[in-house]
């Protein structure tokens, strides 16, 4: 009796275990089928939204953002002058602001290009200083001048666009001082003339190249620091020029705040047009004079 009962219990346990496994398998199959169905539905919907090419292209919003970013990269800041002129022309019902904005485009473009050239010149001056310091360290470490110049030029980039002929002269025993003097014609690379002189003296007279490069690096650093100090002292003059350029705009805003119509007076009356022309001439002369003073001080330094 006990054996029969144990067998029944064992059979019932096995049956219940098997039923549990069957239920778990069915649940897992249903869950997998449900999720796979959801995945298929999502893919179908995505293909419908993108024209059957799901995942092969950016969404419309992202595509528009990329096009706007590309357009902004192609636009130049000086075209803002024309845009402001067009807006003022629409507000004042006159073509004069649009003409003035169009005239301001080449002026602002020239200013932007001059600023870019100045920054490139300063970067090249720093690279020449780094070249002198690195070359002095390589020579002091025991390298031959030609080999040291090859290493220093690759590390600092101070030779600029003339790096290939200078390195060719150093590698194949050419006229390195002549190549350095020719490379000094680049804006900001004037310090290479001193490097060419140090190289010529070291090769012809057997003088120490490292000590000459140390003195040259110190002189170039002192010249750069002097220019930085002068630029800081001339910051007040530049601020005056910016203030002169912004005073007419402030006057127009003040007139609008007082309830007047300065655009109508300046653009549609004889006295206003005369004042506008005279003010524009005096404004241009003032900005030109301050800029001339700043450039003259920088050139004298």
UniProtKB/TrEMBL annotation:
Topology of this chain in the membrane: Multi-pass membrane protein
One Pfam assignment: T2SSF
Broad class of where this protein is predominantly found: membrane
Coiled-coil ranges per UniProt: 213-240
Keyword Cell membrane among record annotations: yes
Transmembrane segments: 12-32, 82-108, 241-260, 266-290
Superkingdom of this protein's organism: Bacteria
Biological source species: Streptomyces lienomycini
Domain Type II secretion system protein GspF per the UniProt entry, residue ranges: 132-255
Lineage of origin: Bacteria, Bacillati, Actinomycetota, Actinomycetes, Kitasatosporales
Compartment annotation: Cell membrane
Keywords: Cell membrane, Coiled coil, Membrane, Transmembrane, Transmembrane helix
Name of this protein: Type II secretion system F family protein
